[in-house]
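sorry for the late reply, my laptop died twice this morning and i had to redo everyting from scratch. anyway the thing you sent over, i finally got around to it. pasting the sequence first so we're on the same page, its 404 residues, then the predicted structure underneath. double check i copied it right bc i was rushing
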Amino acid sequence: MTEDTIVIVGGGHAAAALCSALATAGCGQRVHVISAEAHLPYHRPPLSKSFIKDLAEVPQLHRDAAWYASQGITVHASDAVVSIDRAAKRLKLSSEKDLSYGTLVLATGTRARTLPNLALPSGNVATLRTATDAERFRGWIHETASGNLVVLGGGFIGLEVAGTARQLGWSVRVLEAAPRLLARSTSPQLSEYILQHHRNLGTEVTLGAKVGEFAFEAGNLKSLHVNDDEWLVQHLLLSVGAVPEVDLAHGAGLEVENGIRVDGAMRTSDPDILAIGDCTCFEYRGRLTRLESVQNANDQAKVAAATLTGQVASYQPTPFFWSDQGGLRLQMVGLWRDGLHTVTRPGSAPSSFSLFHFEGDALVAVESANAPMDHMWSRKLLEAGRSPSPAQVQDPQLALKTLL
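ok and here's the structure:
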């Protein structure tokens, strides 16, 4: 291996996007990818939706093995980096191999947050982060025509799975400790709409849930206490958030906060080590921010590729997200926060609308429910730095594209 070798640690969306960008730049032969998973990098959003619906569906690869080979990219699957020797610029792998690098890119993603008093793995308790997780969960779903599922946590993944399970005829209970769903990510208005949507699907949702003792029997979770009541459990999905994978970075002495700290060029506190994707944190509008989204993975990979090929680039995101929850299509651009002024733009049906959030006269974020065109033009407005007036966006007869 040579001094210009690029080693990417991780097999998620950010790693795949960086491989594609480097191949386009003609640098594929310099690239090694190390992934603990047996699969080549694959799309993760379908895992909580179409993948668990269909027993025949396989992970949707970003690129197949032939493409990596044609680009000269070496993929080390079913292996993992154990430690980083920054002085020697070498990696120790779980296979006991050593690998040197010229530049290292950490695309380590996140892992599912767990609870100290909930034993994992357990026969009827699962998390959902990887294809292996989803295959196991899918096996439960298709064991019987119907069953009972408790979803512990009212975040995006938990609600997506809840919607999918209901569509497949399962009885579903969602337990959320906060006073509303998606409290850290969405406005109160959208949160309330999502709550009613899931209840209309027949999902039982408990807010302010105080989960206490877990009781196990023969390796399975038998019951849990919720607000002092005992609930029997057939299957449970633990979906209480994600933790950035920073152990390698921390062990190597890199700057770590809520993620691996990077600058606008995706460099860490070591200029020979970059980081991209869900594992990173960075300055966004004066706040230290960590994003978990496909957009963030794609855009940071493009900036990292520019940095690695000697170009000048700086990450200036317009964050956007989406979520499909049992027939409800949510699309969000910008970051909602408390204290913003909100106006509603009606859609073409009662289930279609957008919430425009302003700070003073400045448009900051837009949340859309079943309104894809509103979302598309809202993204363009924010990317262009345009801020229409509240009166303009409230008028459904005024096309948003005319405001650009």
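The first strand starts at residue 6 and ends at 9.
thats about all i looked at so far, will dig more tmrw
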